[in-house]
Amino acid sequence: ITVYYAPVDSNTDDGYLVIEHNVAQQGNVTKIPVSALGQIAELIAIPNPIDFEQVHVGEFEDMDVILRNAGSDIVDITQVYLRLDGSTDFEILAFSHDNGSELPATLNPRDELGLVIRYEPKEGLCDETTLIVMGETKGANQVWSFDVTGCELGPKIVVVPGEVNFEWVEIDKTEERLVSVQNAGNADLDIP
Predict the structure, then answer these.
(1) Separation of alpha carbons 146 and 45, rounded Å
(2) How many CB atoms lie within 10 A of CB 166?
(3) Rounded CA separation 68/45 (Å)
(4) How deeply is 114 buried, as exposed, middle or buried, from its count of CB atoms within 10 A (0-12, 13-18, 19+)?
(5) Residue 68 to residues 33, 52, 116, 135, Cα–Cα distance (Å)
């Protein structure tokens, strides 16, 4: 027996292959479940997570990121952005796909949209945000999100106490206070 499947829409299908026979112990009928997944659009990011690892303070790194439709249905990408509540040290510089560099972009299964993200650390040790991709599949809105991370490579000086106060000192006397200097960064701290 050969079973054929020819979908006419993108919905999930299921049913039974019914075989009638003369085996009385099985009620003269055997039912075999038959199913097929519906067509869905599924975006993946390459790389994922989008990790810049460590970048020196005052420098930047650009990363090519690919958004691929790994699903079996078409997706229309309408917006791509970085979350506003994430680090502002990340920036999307450009888009690229088969039809140009503007959105919206239609991605068929296995099609890709490329983008360039820049990481330019300005403050703090590690930064993170989320890449948000909005699109439409089968007339419904869909949202995909991908983590974006990076760490600033550089020294960070911590001085304790934050203020040295000798209060009142008698004339011709010497007082001393201890000041602790530490490097809370992830690169050498040079104090000439």
Answers:
(1) 7
(2) 8
(3) 6
(4) middle
(5) 32, 20, 14, 13
Q: Which residues pair with 95 in a beta bridge?
A: 115
Amino acid at 57: V
Please give the Cα distance from 126 to 50 (Å, whole number).
14
Q: Which amino acid is at 152?
A: E
Asked if 87 and 129 count as a contact pair (C-beta separation under 8 A), the reply is: yes
Q: Distance (Å, rounded) from C-alpha 184 to C-alpha 176? A: 25
The per-residue pLDDT for range 108-152, each reduced to its tens digit, is 999 999 999 999 998 767 899 999 999 998 888 999 999 999 998
Identity at 140, one-letter amino acid code:
A
3-class secondary structure, 24: helix
Q: What is d(CA 55, CA 39) in angstroms, rounded to the nearest whole number?
A: 41
Q: Can you tell me the distance from the alpha carbon of 154 to that of 126, in angstroms, rounded to the nearest whole number?
A: 11
- Enter the pTM of the model: 0.69
Residues, the chain: 192
Reported as a single tens digit per residue, the pLDDT across 27-79 is: 888 888 888 877 788 899 999 999 999 898 889 999 999 999 998 889 999 99
